[in-house]
Design goal:
alpha/beta; Rossmann fold; Beta-Lactamase; 8-stranded mixed sheet; 5-stranded parallel sheet; Response regulator receiver protein
Length: 652
C-alpha cells in the first residue's frame, strides 16, 4: 500500500522562534502540511477540531510537557503516531517516553536537515500502518452491521471458529434444531449447538475456507432444505486470521445451485453478448492509438500523416492499428485517405456517448448543446477524457455491476453471484463506482445514481451495438449500409436478436410454418424497397383476402417501371382493395425490409452495389427488431405520397 494523501502534522512547541523557522523548513523539505500549537492545551483544542496524521511535540514545555500531553491523548482512545523532540538525552527521559507510547524521539540539537530527513523517512510508514488499522476496524464494524441487517442467516466466527455474533436469522436457524436453546450462543462452536452431522458439514466448509485463505461458496442440504453458503476469512495487517464471516441463504424451490436467480433474460442476454464479444468490445476503446484513430476519423477522412499529427504516434504504429481496424471493418480506405465504415461510425458514436456520459457534470443543469460543446478540439476531448470509460470496459466486474444494477437494485451477495467474483475482488470495484458517483447504497442494497443510470445505458448500447456488428460481421461487411439514417444507427443495438438466414432449399422448406405465422397472420405487414415488388402479389394477396393490412413503399422509378404492379392492383376486388396501400417515396435502392408486429426481415445490396443479395438476409422475431424496422418504415412513409393509378381499369 502506498500513501496517496497529503500528510497533515501538528507541531507543538512553546518556543515561538521555532514556529517561524522550523515549521516552514519542515514543510519545504518533507512535503508535509504542518500546523502549529504553542502549548499542550492549544494542541488538545486543535486535535478536537482537526484530523491529524502525526503529532510532533517538544518534551519540555511549561504547564503541560510533551509526555503529559501524550497521556491525555492516549486516554481519549486516540492512537495517533506521536514523536517527541527533546533537548535532554538522558536515559530516564528516553525510557519514560517509550513507555508512554511515543513512536520515536529526536534530539533538538541535531541539524535541521537531518531531522527533516528522519521525519520524512519514518512518518509515512507510521501513518500507513494506522490507516490500515483504522480500515480493519471499519471493515469489522461494517461486517457486524451487514450481519445484523442481513435477511439471511449470518454468523461471525473468530479464528478458533467460535461464534462472535449471530443475527436473528442465524439464531432462528439454530433454534429450529432445538427449542431448548435460549442462552447466549457467543463463544460456542457449531458442534456445541447443532446436531453433530450438520455441525461437521459446517465446520468442514469453514476449515476449508480458512486453509485456502479465500472465500468459499458451497451448498448444504439437510432437513429437506438446500442452502447456499458464503464463507469468507478476514485477515489482520500481520496476515493472521482475524475472523470469518458465514452467510447462508435458503434456496427457493426450483432454484438451481449454479444459477443466478435474480438475473432477468434481458440481463442474461447482455452479459452473454458482452462475454462472447469481450475482445471486440474492449479493443476500440482500450487500445489507445486505435481509440485515437477512431475519434479522429469520426470528424472526417484522414491520411496517415494527419493521423500521426493528431495522435502523436509514429507512422508504423498508425499503420499497424489501421490494419486491425480495417480487418474489423471499422475503417475503410479510399485512395490515400481512411474513413470510418458505417459500422465503424456506429461504434464511434457509442464510445463517444459513453465517454460524454461519464465526464458530464451531472450536478449542473443539462444543456441541449452540451454533447457537442467540448470547449476544445473534439478529438482531443475524447482522447483526454477516455480513462474512466477505459477502466470500466477493461474490468469485467465493473461492467457487469453496471449492467446488473441497470436492471434493479441488488445486494452485495447477489452482485457477487452475478459477477462470479469474491468479496475481496468486488469491494474495491464497488468503492470505485461510489467514488465516481455511479452507484449508491440504500439499506444494504446497491443502486445506480442518476449519472450511473445514464452511464450504464450508454454502456449497454455500446456493448449491444458491438455485438450486433461482430456476431454477423460477414453480413455487414459484404453489403452496403450507406443508406442507413442516423436514428437507425443510433438504435442499431435493437437488432441484437437478429440472425443471418439463407435462401437455401432446406431453409425454405423449414421456414414454411414461420412464413405463415410471421407473414400471413400478423395484424399488419409493412415493406420498403423496389425489390419487395417482386414478392408483393405473393405476400399481400393471401393477407388482404383475410382482411389483413399491407403497406408498401416503393420509389417513383419503381412505380413507373412496374406495369405488373398496376395490373395487380387493378385486379383486386374493390371490397378488399382498401387493405392494400402503396406509397411512393425517395429512398436508397440498396435495402429492402419487411416488418410485421411479429417478424422483421432485411435484404441488402452487395457492398459494391452490383446486385441485390437474395440469398443472404437478416431475420428476427424479437419485438426490438420489429420496432427498429417499423421506425424505418414510418420514416420513409412520412416522406411519401400515395400511389395512384392514372388510367382507368380496362375491360374486355
Amino acid at each position: 500500500m502506498s500513501l496517496k494523501k497529503e500528510i497533515n502534522l501538528l507541531y507543538v512547541d512553546d518556543e515561538s522562534i521555532l514556529h517561524k523557522t522550523f515549521k516552514p523548513t519542515m514543510e519545504m523539505l518533507t512535503g508535509f502540511k504542518v500546523d502549529s500549537a504553542q502549548s499542550g492545551m492549544q494542541a488538545l483544542d486543535m486535535i478536537e477540531n482537526t484530523s491529524y496524521d502525526t503529532i510532533i511535540s517538544d518534551y519540555d514545555m511549561p504547564g503541560m510537557n510533551g509526555l503529559e500531553l501524550l497521556k491525555i491523548i492516549r486516554g481519549r482512545g486516540n492512537d495517533i503516531p506521536y514523536i517527541i523532540f527533546t533537548g535532554k538525552s538522558s536515559e530516564e527521559v528516553v525510557i519514560e517516553a517509550l513507555n508512554s507510547g511515543v513512536d520515536f524521539y529526536l534530539l533538538k540539537e541535531a541539524e535541521i536537515d537531518n531531522i527533516c530527513s528522519e521525519l520524512k523517512r519514518k512518518i509515512p510508514p507510521l501513518v500507513e500502518e494506522r490507516i490500515i488499522k483504522i480500515t480493519q476496524s471499519e471493515k469489522r464494524e461494517a461486517m457486524q452491521d451487514l450481519i445484523d441487517h442481513s435477511p439471511d442467516s449470518a454468523f461471525l466466527l473468530n479464528a478458533d471458529k467460535k461464534i462472535i455474533t449471530a443475527n436473528r436469522g442465524g439464531r432462528d436457524f439454530i433454534n429450529s434444531f432445538s427449542n431448548s436453546i435460549n442462552t447466549d450462543i457467543t463463544g460456542m462452536s457449531f458442534y456445541d449447538i447443532l446436531p453433530h452431522q450438520i455441525a461437521e458439514i459446517k465446520s468442514s466448509s469453514t476449515d476449508k475456507a480458512a486453509e485456502e485463505g479465500r472465500e468459499a461458496i458451497c451448498y448444504e442440504e439437510y432437513m429437506g432444505k438446500r442452502y447456499k453458503i458464503y464463507i469468507t476469512p478476514h485477515y489482520n495487517i500481520e496476515g493472521e486470521l482475524h475472523y470469518i464471516s458465514y452467510f447462508q441463504r435458503a434456496l427457493k424451490k426450483g432454484e438451481k445451485k449454479e444459477g443466478d436467480p435474480a438475473q432477468s433474460i434481458s440481463l442474461d442476454i447482455k452479459l452473454r453478448h458482452y462475454k462472447d464479444n469481450l475482445a471486440a468490445v474492449q479493443f476500440p476503446l482500450t487500445a489507445d492509438i486505435a481509440a485515437a484513430i477512431i475519434f479522429a476519423l469520426s470528424s472526417g477522412p484522414k491520411t496517415i500523416i494527419d493521423l500521426c499529427d493528431i495522435t502523436l504516434s509514429s507512422s508504423p504504429n498508425i499503420t499497424s492499428r489501421l490494419k486491425i481496424l480495417r480487418e474489423k471493418n471499422i475503417v475503410l480506405k479510399d485512395d490515400e485517405e481512411y474513413r470510418l465504415s458505417v459500422t465503424g461510425s456506429i461504434i464511434a458514436d457509442k464510445i463517444k456517448g459513453f465517454i460524454i456520459s461519464i465526464n458530464r457534470k451531472w450536478h449542473e443543469p443539462y444543456k441541449e448543446a452540451e454533447e457537442s460543446d467540448y470547449g476544445e478540439d473534439e478529438t482531443s476531448y475524447f482522447i483526454r477524457n477516455k480513462s474512466d470509460a477505459q477502466a470500466i470496459i477493461r474490468s469485467t466486474i465493473l461492467t457487469t455491476i453496471l449492467l446488473a444494477l441497470n436492471e434493479d437494485m441488488m445486494s452485495r451477495y447477489l452482485l457477487r453471484d452475478i459477477t462470479g467474483s469474491s468479496s475481496v475482488a468486488l469491494s474495491p470495484k464497488i468503492a470505485w463506482l461510489k467514488e465516481k458517483a455511479l452507484i449508491d447504497e440504500k439499506e444494504h442494497e446497491y443502486c445506480l445514481t442518476r449519472k450511473g443510470r445514464i452511464v450504464a445505458t450508454h454502456l449497454e448500447e455500446y456493448i449491444l451495438s458491438s455485438a450486433v456488428i461482430y456476431k454477423n460481421s460477414s453480413f455487414w461487411t459484404g453489403h452496403s449500409l450507406d443508406w442507413m439514417p442516423d436514428f437507425a444507427k443510433d438504435t442499431f443495438y435493437e437488432l441484437i436478436h437478429a440472425e443471418v438466414h439463407y435462401n437455401s432449399p432446406d431453409e425454405i422448406v423449414s421456414r414454411g410454418d414461420i412464413h405463415k405465422d410471421h407473414i400471413l397472420e400478423p395484424k399488419y405487414l409493412h415493406g420498403v424497397s423496389d425489390y419487395s415488388l417482386l414478392c408483393l402479389p405473393a405476400v399481400s394477396m393471401p393477407r388482404i383476402c383475410r382482411h389483413h393490412n399491407c403497406e408498401f413503399i416503393i420509389s417513383k422509378d419503381g412505380a413507373e417501371d412496374e406495369s405488373e404492379l398496376k395490373e395487380f392492383i387493378e385486379d383486386i376486388d374493390e371490397d378488399i382493395k382498401s387493405f392494400l396501400k402503396v406509397h411512393i417515396s425517395e429512398f436508397p435502392h440498396t435495402f429492402s425490409i419487411i416488418v410485421t408486429d411479429k417478424y422483421f426481415e432485411m435484404k441488402l445490396m452487395t457492398d459494391n452495389c452490383r446486385f441485390f443479395d437474395t440469398i443472404e438476409y437478416l431475420v428476427s422475431t424479437s419485438p426490438e427488431a420489429c420496432m427498429w424496422g417499423e421506425r424505418l418504415f414510418q420514416y420513409y412513409k412520412s416522406k411519401s405520397v400515395p400511389y395512384k393509378i392514372n388510367s382507368e381499369k380496362s375491360t374486355e
